[in-house]
Design a protein that fits this description.
The chain is of the alpha/beta class and 512 residues long. It contains 22 helices and 18 strands. The protein folds into 2 domains: 2-177, Ribosomal Protein S5, domain 2 (2-Layer Sandwich), CATH 3.30.230; 194-398 and 409-506, Rossmann fold (3-Layer(aba) Sandwich), CATH 3.40.50. α5 links the parallel β8 and β9.
Length: 512
Amino acid sequence: MLKKVYGSAVFGVEATTIVVEVNIDSGIGYHLVGLPDNAIKESNYRIAAALQNNGYKIPGKKITINMAPADLRKEGSAYDLTLAVGILSASNQIQSEDLDKYLIMGELSLDGSLQPIKGALPIAIKAREEGFKAFILPEQNAKEAAIVNDLEVLGASNILEVIEHFDSNEQIAPTIVDTREEFYKHLDFPEFDFSDVKGQESIKRCMEIAAAGGHNIILIGPPGSGKTMLAKRLPSILPPMTLHEALETTKIHSVVGRVKEHTGLMTQRPFRSPHHTISDVALVGGGTYPQPGEISLAHNGVLFLDELPEFKRSVLEVMRQPLEDRDVTISRAKFTVTYPSSFMLVASMNPSPGGYFNDPDAPVTSSPAEMQRYLSKISGPLLDRIDIHIEVTPVPFEKLAESRKGEASIEIRKRVTLARDVQTERFKDLDTVHYNAQMSTKQIREYCQLDSASLELLKSAMERLNLSARAYDRILKVARTIADLDQSESIVGSHISEAIQYRSLDREGWLG
């Protein structure tokens, strides 16, 4: 007897429906075809034990299972439940007239309990698109999948619940999530706050500008000056995520199984801080069966690279294209996947191997030649893609001893959000641009026009500092953001001069 059951495979951040055809005929043997990987090939042992421990069995006949489309590679253990239900249905151990209206996924334990799967959210979105009545999956993933409206999400804890759902009147209760209520309820404030930072007013101003325009930023300073502390607090001043951004971010984290159990939407902007020993593939994504990398997990949030020169040069160079295009494409012989990677890059570094600038009073000094060698580990093209370079100096004792708290993140966030609102209005007719850092050269020419005095000031700085064309564009973008924070329609000289100050590494004495 032939039965069809439906599952799903995830490629990139999109799902593809898989038809599992189970045919039981006279004879003996178990044949699984359709490009399954080893985890799927081993599923018959898990299925046999799970059914045996719950009063059912795999029939002693010839079982042929095809996973269509047969030319598409399937991987992972999430098809256990799909295959088990197909076998039970084809052998008449369960009766169901509307089995083809369900999409079923789940990994089985030997006792029949269900283990969580990866990619529940993109699978649920695909199930709704294709008109399935319901999606049966492990209860740990139910809340994540229930974000999708107009689809019954049935979370089961073991295979017996699934069998009884089809074979008796004991229906699995659907998981219901009010997506908007869930989203607004969990827009709580992040753990880190700028009020904890003593002094560093100029750096806070820099962070505010970076947050307002979505600009990449690099912090250069000696150990203990507060670079990491400041970077960790950047998400607290970014505007709250929109519902669309929250869904987009949750989808990526769902693919790699990073959404916490029994939670639905991710409502906080991600903050990723990989160690400097990270590989190229782990950073940008890829592998034999491509997975999102750290830059995609930081989508709509912050990627923090601490001690930038310690990262392998090849790792930093592969990040150049995603920084420009805000997505990364992984190509293989048979398929290509694209992951979104629109993140804010925050990097920090010491000015020299010893950690201090060329200062005779410093505990460990480095010669100009050593400093030059150390700084040259970061390529010019990568630095050009970082809009703001700022020096972070140690906080004096008087500031550290102050009992007065600094300005709270919530106050800074209000100004940042107002500036972002200006940008949203400005770019409302553009699909790919939402804030100043995303502007192309064409949009810079349109929205960053200068008066003659500002143009002369910028020309002088370009000639004196020998800046590249990309650095010229970066200065204009940052100046546009400073003007937006001032609620100014036009860019004036003070905005340009402040933006020029934030190109520290272009100055003589840093990179030669």
